[in-house]
């Protein structure tokens, strides 16, 4: 008879998780914390609803593997090279700082130095899974503090390898000692190098042949086999499966098929990742917390404080601004999932005494559970910290006001463009402004980029666009346009708010990722918001039209029309009542369409009453836009002009007749 134990366990996990995460969502609490709570409820120390924990842990490990695989795809070799200062300076300082402090405290309270070092290993690692998901959910992966955090997390994952090899040495004198460990490290490095080189030459050719088959199923299976296969081969050299998966993703990231590979793997990654968080929650034994509450709470406070201080100090060492330092330091303050792997090995080697293992689990799980809340509150903490000007005096030359020291006096510039963020959008904009001889000033918080670009003649300075003092130095009161092109949503909103207060006449343009951020940015003072989702949709239909050999002039005209009409409707929530009905699905029998009044339209010069769209077609004019200003429920006395955009509401046939009336029929 078939055993359905695994299926019933998964069903219990997902049902309880859905209920708990939904409840958390109602209170706007992070979903990660909900998964951890769900795990503690159904685990062996809660209601004990799961019969086979090993299967759940295996599935959870697959989630970690897929996560590191997708990180590798996104974090290409070019990104690793760009983050070399983090990987070579900040990350080693952070890990070494936690290790030394933990070892010192452990020895001072009477632990043998070998066990103290082992505890230092455990606490020096942070949670790649939780932090990356939190950053991705907030859209901050590509921000300054996001890139810094990811760089340190990658180094920590690499550091797991020598830590694993040192556990037998810490457990007791081993034959061969340090020589044996160095030989093992060298063997691992050689094997990994061979795997990477082989994959580098074979993977692109293999994917090319698979893509030619035009089979989505075959492509997906190939990607999964490459991920698991390279991870397994790497694990044979002594490294972790997760690190092997990261290497696999790194190899695929250099191919032209990386974006499709990411899209195919994402659903599996998200599903298995939820199992990982649940499995971590299952480890929590609340009886230990009740037995030693002061010890565990004290350790939690010490871990959060020490990791924040070491992470912040390590990033200050390479010149990151205080706000980014605070955000990244808070993000790295918890204990990581790889620490559980080290803890299991340490338990087998006898490095835990008494209830030390359960105490470690309690501290680790609770720091993980707290992390989403800390990341959520981190921007407010950073904002308050920036209010204390003495912070800038403590670190002169390394703060957002460093812009003052990189300029010779005040800039003599007027009627210029201020560009916040020198990424791809900022670079393209500066190139166009230089060609058209429009004055500009760019600001960025990547010191290396500022140094290199300024040497090339770009008018760029090191400074934080959210800092009023920096904005005054670049003469915001005399500027005509501010372009906010940074990847940090919180900073973008704050930059708009501060800039609007400093110059009410300034024209502010903001780039954002998602349409849902439009309303808030407009309310804060943005004049134009460019959502990447919207522009991507335009690019997609343009590609489709090119495939059908449509003339380029027609494609450009269509794209311009969509931009003109679409942004007019998106601006300042012009039709909130209509948007409400559309979201609620209560207008299922009607459609909404926009139409631009051209010069040859028979409606030009006529009032809406004279055109009589509703009596003649059944469609209603619910809004119209003129000169970027949208008016809902326009009067029948409104006289239509060339360039006006009317918004029509009705059935498809009614709208078709209305458009025909505005195009072909003589208006009397």
Task: Walk me through this protein's architecture.
The protein is α/β, with parallel strands linked by helices. The protein has 3 domains: 5-386, Na+/H+ antiporter like fold (Up-down Bundle), CATH 1.20.1530; 401-547, Rossmann fold; 575-663, Regulator of K+ conductance, C-terminal domain (Alpha-Beta Plaits, 2-Layer Sandwich), CATH 3.30.70.1450. 65% of the residues lie in helices and 7% in strands. The protein has 29 helices and 10 strands. A 6-stranded parallel beta sheet has the order 3-2-1-4-5-6, sandwiched between helices. A 4-stranded antiparallel beta sheet has the order 7-10-8-9. Helix 5 (84-108) runs antiparallel to helix 14 (293-316). The chain is globular and about 95 Å long. It starts with a helix and ends in a 5-residue tail after the last helix.
- How many alpha or pi helices? 29
Q: Tell me which oligomeric state these chains represent.
A: single chain
Q: What is the strand content?
A: 5-15%
- The CATH class of the largest domain turns out to be Mainly Alpha
Radius of gyration: 29 Å
Q: Do you know the CATH architecture of the largest domain?
A: Up-down Bundle
Separation, N- and C-terminal Cα atoms: 82 Å
- Report the sheet with the most strands, covering strand number, pairing sense and barrel closure: 6 strands, parallel
CATH topology-level name of the largest domain: Na+/H+ antiporter like fold
Strand arrangement in the largest pleated sheet: 3-2-1-4-5-6
Count of domains: 3
Which geometry do the CA atoms define?
globular
Q: How many β-strand stretches?
A: 10
Overall pLDDT level = 78
Helix content: 55-70%
- Structural class, by secondary structure, is alpha/beta
User: Low-confidence parts lasting 5 or more residues at pLDDT below 50?
Assistant: 389-409, 571-580
């Amino acid at each position: 008879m078939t055993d359905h134990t695994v299926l019933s366990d998964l069903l219990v996990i997902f049902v309880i998780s859905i209920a708990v995460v939904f409840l958390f969502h109602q209170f706007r609490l992070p979903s990660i914390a909900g998964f951890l709570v769900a795990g503690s409820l159904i685990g062996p120390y809660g209601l004990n609803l799961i019969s086979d924990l090993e299967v759940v842990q295996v599935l959870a490990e697959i989630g970690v593997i897929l996560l590191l695989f997708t990180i590798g795809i996104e974090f290409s070799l070019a990104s690793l090279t760009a983050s070399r200062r983090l990987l070579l300076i900040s990350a080693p300082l952070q890990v070494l700082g936690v290790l030394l402090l933990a070892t010192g405290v452990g020895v001072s309270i009477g632990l043998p130095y070998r066990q103290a070092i082992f505890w230092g290993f455990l606490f020096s690692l942070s949670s790649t899974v939780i932090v990356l998901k939190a950053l991705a959910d907030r859209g901050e992966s590509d921000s300054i503090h996001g890139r810094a955090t990811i760089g340190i997390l990658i180094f920590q994952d690499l550091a797991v390898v020598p830590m694993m090899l040192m556990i037998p040495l810490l457990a007791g004198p081993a034959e061969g000692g340090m020589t044996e460990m160095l030989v093992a490290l060298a063997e691992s490095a050689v094997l990994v190098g061979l795997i990477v080189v082989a994959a580098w030459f074979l993977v692109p050719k293999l994917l090319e042949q698979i893509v030619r088959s035009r089979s989505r199923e075959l492509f997906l299976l190939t990607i999964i086999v490459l991920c698991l296969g390279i991870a397994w081969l790497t694990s044979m050299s002594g490294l972790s499966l997760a690190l092997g998966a990261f290497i696999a993703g790194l190899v695929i990231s250099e191919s032209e098929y990386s974006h499709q590979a990411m899209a195919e793997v994402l659903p599996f990654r998200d599903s298995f990742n939820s199992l990982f968080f649940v499995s971590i929650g299952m480890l929590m034994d609340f009886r230990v917390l009740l037995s030693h509450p002061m010890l565990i709470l004290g350790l939690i406070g010490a871990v959060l404080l020490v990791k924040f201080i070491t992470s912040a100090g390590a990033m200050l060492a390479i010149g990151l601004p205080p706000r980014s330092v605070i955000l990244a330091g808070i993000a790295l303050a918890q204990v990581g999932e790889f620490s559980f792997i080290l803890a299991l090995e340490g338990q087998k080697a006898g490095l835990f005494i008494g209830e030390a293992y359960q105490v470690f689990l309690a501290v680790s799980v609770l720091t993980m559970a707290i992390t989403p809340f800390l990341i959520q509150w981190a921007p407010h903490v950073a904002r308050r910290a920036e209010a204390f000007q003495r912070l800038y005096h403590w670190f002169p030359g390394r703060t957002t006001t460093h812009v003052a020291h990189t300029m010779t006096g005040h800039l003599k510039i007027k009627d210029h463009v201020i560009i916040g963020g020198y990424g791809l959008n900022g670079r393209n904009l500066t190139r166009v402004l230089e060609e058209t001889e429009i004055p500009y000033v760019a600001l960025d918080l990547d010191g290396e980029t500022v140094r290199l670009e300024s040497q090339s003649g770009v008018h760029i300075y090191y400074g934080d666009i959210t800092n009023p003092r920096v904005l005054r130095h670049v003469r915001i009161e005399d500027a005509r346009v501010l372009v906010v092109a940074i990847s940090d949503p919180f900073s973008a909103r704050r930059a708009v708010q501060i800039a609007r207060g400093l110059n009410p006449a300034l024209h502010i343009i903001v780039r954002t990722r998602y349409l849902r951020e439009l309303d808030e940015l407009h309310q804060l003072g943005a004049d134009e918001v460019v959502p990447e989702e919207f522009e991507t949709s335009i690019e997609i239909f343009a590609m489709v039209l090119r495939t059908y050999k449509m003339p380029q002039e027609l494609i450009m005209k269509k794209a311009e029309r969509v931009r003109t009409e679409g942004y007019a409707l998106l601006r300042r929530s012009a039709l909130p009542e209509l948007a409400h009905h559309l979201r609620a699905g209560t207008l299922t029998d009607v459609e909404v369409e926009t139409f631009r009044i051209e010069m040859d339209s028979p409606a030009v010069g006529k009032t809406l009453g004279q055109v009589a769209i509703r009596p003649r077609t059944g469609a209603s004019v619910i809004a119209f836009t003129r000169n970027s200003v949208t008016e809902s429920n326009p009067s029948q006395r409104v006289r239509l002009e060339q360039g006006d955009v009317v918004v029509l509401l009705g059935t498809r046939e009614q709208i078709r007749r209305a458009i025909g009336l505005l195009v072909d029929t003589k208006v009397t």
